[in-house]
Automatic annotation (TrEMBL):
Residues 55-182 form the Peptidase M16 N-terminal domain. Residues 194-371 form the Peptidase M16 C-terminal domain. GO terms for molecular function: metal ion binding. This is Insulinase family protein. InterPro entries: Metalloenz_LuxS/M16, MPP/UQCRC_Complex, Pept_M16_N, Peptidase_M16_C. Pfam families: Peptidase_M16 (PF00675), Peptidase_M16_C (PF05193). It comes from the Bacteria.
Length: 463
């Protein structure tokens, strides 16, 4: 969440740089209280009184996996939550938040819808009534909804000119096909145009409910007084009881390389993903995978970036990433290159992946990766907003504070032998799934080199 409030930094770790070695002092997750209201809503409260700020993170099981036949409805519903409520018009909300220097943002992702808020603690009783009504009593103003639809449709139109903005959506569809995880969160032109205010209200009534939701609050407040506020503001929230927050079983992947060639006639470069199925967020090897991926493609001095950018000059940058969700995820190498160097860049990326499998990681490189991960970790959870978000993620993905408390120990326990095991299990090198966006007439022959090719136009992702 971006905010005009200067977030405070809490002490959760001290870094020391000695020579070329980075040490991170051990730290423990700050104490917090977690409980449920009678309606099933989970509440996490963490007092941090160093500075007068409060941050809130809420997750609701109302993401794009529930879009069914109307892709984009989860996105529009989440956005429209701020278009007025029972007692506050959109203008009232905007003016009040602007005057207070506060922020409330709403969004929807693949699996859940979310709300993030940040404000000065003295304004708690001015902001909280608005926030509670946004979550539980939205009005979905028809005029504002049409404006939002128009803005969103214009944004979708622009995407056909932005390969890097849509390649992830094409990759998800290649990996997941008709599964819920293949749903495009933004929707498409035809589906978004057809969505009505009644559709959004129905989606809200169906999926915005307390029994599988969480609200996490971190900052300068009194614990018992906040508990009373939460009961007053959310205790009467009923909603429809959720049947399940799980998704269907993941589809089987073809046991062969598959290439999706996305044609963009005016392209002068090729943007590509190479990868396969990944991991869920609560995978027990999560930290080890992150250490290995840091070395392979997760930092500027990674294997991938060294080979594709520094040593060969084939691209301005290359990376690898694990996108994790509740029930699964994906892994991919991503980069772009000039049309005439498409084959060389793709060959090099696959070569580096094979090298990772064949050679593993040396003890020296593993030490470097471990230190990098430990050094990057504390700054990710310094602010009240980051801690509130982490508390909500812990609830959603099913991991606990041991992820924080044992972080350094678990990272340090990574050995070269464990690295080999992780590479073998989690970094796909066979049956690769590849998406290429570029000028098909010039790269179609190259695409055929890497597997069975299917071809679509870039406009297909928004139609």
């Amino acid at each position: 969440m971006r905010s005009n409030i200067q977030h405070h930094i809490i002490f959760i770790g001290i870094l020391f740089l000695t020579g070329n070695v980075l040490f991170a002092q051990s730290y423990t997750f700050p104490e917090y209280t977690s409980y449920q209201l009678e309606n099933g809503l989970t509440i996490n409260l963490m007092e941090q009184k160093e500075v007068p700020l409060i941050s809130i993170s809420a997750l609701i099981p109302a993401g794009a996996v529930n879009d069914d036949t109307k892709p984009g409805i989860a996105y529009l519903t989440a956005t429209a939550l701020k278009h007025g409520t029972t007692n506050y018009s959109k203008e009232d909300i905007d003016k009040t938040l602007d005057f207070l220097g506060a922020e409330i943002n709403t969004y929807a992702g693949k699996e859940f819808a979310g709300l993030e808020a940040g404000f000065i603690s003295k304004d708690l009783d001015k902001v909280m009534p608005i926030l509670a009504e946004i979550m539980t009593q939205p009005g979905f103003d028809a005029e504002e909804l049409q404006k939002e639809k128009d803005r969103h449709l214009a944004g979708l139109e622009r995407k056909k000119e932005q390969p890097r903005a849509v390649i992830g959506q094409f990759f998800d569809q290649l990996i997941y096909s008709d599964h819920q995880y293949g749903t495009i969160t933004d929707g498409n032109l035809s589906s978004v145009q057809s969505i009505t205010r009644e559709d959004i209200r129905e989606f809200f009534n169906e999926h915005y409910h307390p029994s599988k939701a969480v609200i996490s609050i971190v900052g300068d407040f009194d614990l018992e007084a906040m508990k009373e506020r939460m009961e007053n503001y959310f205790g009467s929230w009923k909603g429809k009881e959720a049947e399940s927050t799980s998704v269907d079983g993941l589809p089987e992947l073809a046991e062969s390389n598959q290439v999706l060639l996305v044609n963009k006639d005016d392209a002068t470069e090729t943007t590509f993903y190479i990868g396969g199925r990944g991991i869920s967020r609560n995978n027990p090897d999560y930290l080890g995978i992150m250490v290995v991926n840091t070395f392979f493609g997760g930092r500027f001095t990674s294997m991938l970036n060294d080979e594709l950018r520094v040593n060969s000059g084939l691209t301005y940058g290359a990376r690898s990433r694990f996108d994790t969700m509740k029930e699964g995820g994906s892994f991919y190498i991503s980069t772009f290159t000039a049309t005439e160097t498409t084959e060389a860049a793709m060959d090099k990326a696959i070569e580096v992946l094979k090298k990772l499998h064949d050679q593993g990681i040396s003890e020296q490189d593993l030490t470097s990766a471990r230190n990098y991960v430990k050094g990057q970790f504390p700054p990710r959870f310094e602010t009240s907003g980051q801690l509130a978000g982490l508390l909500s993620e812990m609830f959603w993905y099913g991991f606990d504070e041991s992820f924080i408390n044992n972080f350094n120990t678990n990272v340090d326990q990574m050995t070269t032998e464990k690295v080999k095991e992780i590479i073998s299990i989690y970094f796909p090198k066979d049956h690769l799934k590849i998406v290429m966006i570029g000028k098909a007439t010039e790269i179609e022959g190259i695409a055929a080199k890497y597997g069975e090719v299917s071809k679509v136009e870039i406009e297909s992702i928004i139609q």
